[in-house]
Amino acid sequence: MARLDRLPAAKQVAQVGAVIGREFGHELLSAVAGLSKATLARGLNDLVSAGLAFRRGTPPEATYLFKHALVQDAAYASLLRGTRQELHVRIARFWEEHFPEVALTQPELLAHHSAEGDLIEQAVDYWFVAGERALHKSANVEAVKHLSRGIQLLMSLPDTPERQRKELRFQTTLGLAFTATKGWAAPEVLQAYSRADELCQALNDSVERFKIVLGLWNFHAGRGETHRARELSDELFRLAEQQDDDELRLQAHHSVWGSVTWHGEFTVSREHIEQGIAMYSPAKHGSHALIYGGHDPGVCGWVHGGVNLWFLGYPDQAAEHVCRSVLLAEEIAHPPSLGHALHFGLLCHQLRGDEATVRAWGERLAELAAEHGLGLYKATAIAAGGWVLTNQGQAKSSLLELRQGLDGYTDLGFHEFEPYFKALLAKGHFDAGEAAIGFEVLEDAMRFAEESGVRFWNAELLRLKGVLLAHLLPDGGRREVEAFYREALAVAGRQQTRSLELRAATSLARLWRDQGKRTEAHDLLAPIYGWFTEGVDTPDLKEAKALLDEPCE
Length: 553
Hints:
Elements: H1 2-5, H2 8-20, E1 23-25, H3 26-33, H4 37-49, E2 53-56, E3 63-66, H5 69-77, H6 81-98, H7 102-105, H8 107-116, H9 120-136, H10 140-154, H11 161-182, H12 187-203, H13 206-222, H14 226-243, H15 246-263, H16 266-279, H17 282-285, H18 297-312, H19 315-332, H20 335-352, H21 355-372, H22 375-391, H23 395-411, H24 418-431, H25 435-452, H26 458-472, H27 478-495, H28 498-514, H29 518-531, H30 539-549
Antiparallel strand pairs: 1-3, 2-3
Helix pairs in contact: 2-3, 2-4, 2-5, 3-6, 6-8, 8-9, 9-10, 9-11, 10-11, 11-12, 11-13, 12-13, 13-14, 13-15, 14-15, 15-16, 15-18, 16-18, 18-19, 18-20, 19-20, 20-21, 20-22, 21-22, 22-23, 23-24, 24-25, 24-26, 25-26, 26-27, 26-28, 27-28, 28-29, 28-30, 29-30
């Protein structure tokens, strides 16, 4: 600052340049500084000669860069508040009048200068455009930042219906941005949509109501609160019918298949998926990911369809569906939708026992999550790495990654997969020689499943309890173990999940074989195995086939 004080012309130029930014161009500086050409030229030369700024190019095309951000800060701080505001206003007006495209390509620039120039309403509008633009580019962290700044400024304006309408748009868009960065079940998602719901009711806005209910559905479904999620799905169908809108009906179906899968109603989920996919068109519904729920409904339908098909006993078709989901996400070029496809696709390939695909997709999801700030999918990628280690028999190492993945979900409020990953964690403890700890983890998973209604993995939890109990009780606790296997078989039968029925039958048949009841074991397992028409190379079917191929006598 002392060096600037000794160079009056340089100080004037530095002050104006500091308001523009760390880097500033000759044309803009000349337009807003209000200095004569001679003073401007002398000031710029002195600023460069003093080593306080660098020059690139030749005036009037030259650009200048402060040597250090502290030089800019010092020059900026030396201006009176009123002078700073006036310069910010001039800069904003210059961009609007001479380069109107900046409002579309760099709205955050105009938002900043408008805000600093005390043009609050104009700044609010620009921050919304900036946030929406960042969301469309999948720059989700930036979107959160821009929208939050806009809301903060908006709160300084008088509380009028117009302000409420603007805040409603901000909050619903912010809900989408938080959904992308933190996952559906993050507290920030609930906060944004709850505030939007308050505003919607105050304004009696039925059009925005559907978006808000869907956002709230996403939150409760992600947290594993299946009963509340089902209530919100019913409300979505009512709203869709009231407006007689097929696009809203598609999203209502989307909500149902996302709820009932984790409740263990796989056939119901499949029906809604088929209806939704029949209605879906990439050309017609390509914008849905930027309006409802943060991901494409077609991508979700195909990947959820894959998960359901595995449970229902079609492992090869399941793989085809999740691959189609990934291809669709790549086609529409929406990173959060691709993350969604890989997220659920990883679960499907884990269920199929496809280690190579899980490893490859997990690495891809980790890169995608890091590039676009997708916190939930980062946890999924970590957990997938733990599954690979479990599959390779590296129990101790798998426990660390599975716990990190599970903690990542918990920190974001996401509980949809909790029973599944706790089952993996329990198996990891068992493989590491810690069956008692594993049994406690399974008990905790069962309590959560019962309280939440997330019961898609109940049959497997029961089967695994039997496996662990066989190592914990004297003489293997055969009666108790058999009781768990039978209950697992019954639950799988009620849920019509043939794949889990096969696992339970295989475990029970093996127990009977070890008791010398080979004929009974064969008679139990053979019809269940014989039902399958595909997936013969998957580990579950290969294990059952090997058991069946053993001689009965």
